[in-house]
Amino acid sequence: MILSFRAGNARQSISHFLSGVFGAEISNRVDEILMFNEVTREDVEKMVDFMVSDFAKRIKRLGERSIEVEVTEGMKNRVVEEGYDPPTSGGAKPLKSAFARLVENPLADAVLEMRTGSDEYVVARLDYHPDFGPSLRILYVGEQQYVSREY
Fold it and tell me: Which residues form the Clp ATPase C-terminal domain (predicted)?
């Protein structure tokens, strides 16, 4: 349930609302009322930057090969567009789902398909183009050999 109150007397309004809906017996059991600010698009963009950084660190530690992850601004913007759901939503869940669908899952599938040696260096570049959709390009570098593959 999402309630909207003016900032000045929000705590009193919420307490009064709870008493009216649930009665004094239940509303007296509420220890604290937490107030949250609305999440803005800029906040979500920062969250996506953090998610990309965290994901890149996690995937870099996979196995014996070195994997570098690049997520373009186009892909980040696409994750924000699909994951940003104004305050009437379920919070960060749509953002996490969009990130998993657009970034984590395609790259995880590609990493599982890789048949590379431990001495190879892998660069994975995730991009999104409005006309062509998402793309994943894998570049293998090892033993004087460079291979690029599109997914």
Answer: 39-132
